[in-house]
Amino acid sequence: MTVTFPTGFLWGAATAAYQVEGAAREDGRTPSIWDTFSRTPGRVLGGDTGDTATGHYHRREEDVRLMAELGLGAYRFSVSWPRVQPTGRGPASRGGLDFYRALVDDLLARGIQPMLTLYHWDLPQELEDAGGWPARETAHRFADYALLVGEALGDRVGLWTTLNEPWCSAFLGYAAGVHAPGRTDDEAALRAAHHLNLAHGLGAQALRTVLPADARLSVALNPAAVRARTPAPGDLDAQRRVDALATRIFTEPMLRGAYPADLISDTEPITDWSFVRDGDTDIVKHPLDALGINYYAPTVVSAATDNRPDRSDGHGAGGRSPWPGAGRVAFHRPPGKRTAMDWAVDPTGLYDLLMRFTREAPGLPLIITENGAAYDDKPDADGAVHDPERIAYLHAHLDAVLRALGDGADVRGYFLWSLLDNFEWAYGYSKRFGAVYVDYATLARTPKSSARWYARVARTGRLTPS
């Protein structure tokens, strides 16, 4: 089997604004739902917030130099909506846009392609106060925001992503309540999912009016590699239900212009779907230039066998399910090694997803927009950070990408999650995903051994031994 990636394969790393930027109250930035959520006692482990994060807002040049030293060909970052459009309405903030202009210029000067994500979960709090994603108006506000960013950066950014993991925004934020804004309303979560889809379509339409013809648009989903525990009919039905809620609720309207009939049937006790208006799915089905896939671990399910189905679904949802309409589904721990997040290490799930979308969306290029692992990394006596487990993880998953390429998948790039250790949402600073270690007391950066290994792979295009 080949160990060489195609010429032109895009090697990158990814971050998200709230997780790395800090400067939460500077240059006119107003609170996002994650500012509010993280400052609410009991919501985030240790009471951590993103107020400082990794200080990327003030260490932009240092971080770009670090990317260049690591041989990255691309950097996927997100724009902070409340930094650019402080209330979610009206004109753009010049100071907010200037930061991203400078970031893009720095990247281009060092030969690093910027890949811009418009929404990575930091909805302006004022829009949440007006209804949030369950409100249709939020989708239209997103289109206005997309237009502002497109007008400002469209001449320099060639890779655009509308949304990151809308499943998390809808179902962890509005059903399970473990992500911002922390609501627990199944019907609101389904509304939010549709309005996120609508925002994707409206935002893509707005971008097309201002971007050059060669700019490429994508969305970054976290489709589930769902596996039935056994071939029993009940377990297969559990697999179908979770697949509908995790994946097809987004891919079917985006790629085919309609919601799955089984999804609507499964959720009839919760909603009549009257929030989907005529013409909505035509808007959602906006032509994509690539599909972004975020992958970490597979999901194993069965039919629940008692009145208390297992909620160990790998999303930190505890006792409140993020799966409306799947109340009789049990979730099970996959076998094998695990990361510090207690997620299974299983690269076959990534291979399966790449081949699935090769079949279901022929001709649509695929980009792995996130893949990585958290481990309990610590500096040694000399200050070096050795993380052989992460190297083994990355090697195994990149090997899965090579297998998919050999079997006909059109995979154009791979973005390691994450460039830096950072604020890991409800886990605060307790989990380290970065290829670069961050000392949160001093904000000093130290590339881990995995960063050096990944740099060699990126520079040579060859999968070297782990």
TrEMBL record:
Uppermost EC category: hydrolase
Residue numbers spanned by region Disordered: 304-327
Keywords tagged on the record: Carbohydrate metabolism, Cellulose degradation, Glycosidase, Hydrolase, Polysaccharide degradation
Active-site residues, as the UniProt record annotates them: 165, 370
Catalyzed chemical reaction(s): Hydrolysis of terminal, non-reducing beta-D-glucosyl residues with release of beta-D-glucose
InterPro entries xrefs: GH (IPR017853), GH_1_N_CS (IPR033132), Glyco_hydro_1 (IPR001360), Glyco_hydro_1_AS (IPR018120), Glyco_hydro_1_beta-glucosidase (IPR017736)
Record: residues binding substrate: 19, 120, 164, 296, 417, 424-425
GO molecular function: beta-glucosidase activity
One Pfam match: Glyco_hydro_1
GO terms for biological process, alphabetical: cellulose catabolic process
Statement: the UniProt record of this protein carries the keyword RNA-binding: no
Recorded GO CC terms: cytosol
EC number: 3.2.1.21
PANTHER family: GLYCOSYL HYDROLASE, LP05116P
Record family assignment: Belongs to the glycosyl hydrolase 1 family.
Record-given protein name: Beta-glucosidase
Organism: Streptomyces triculaminicus
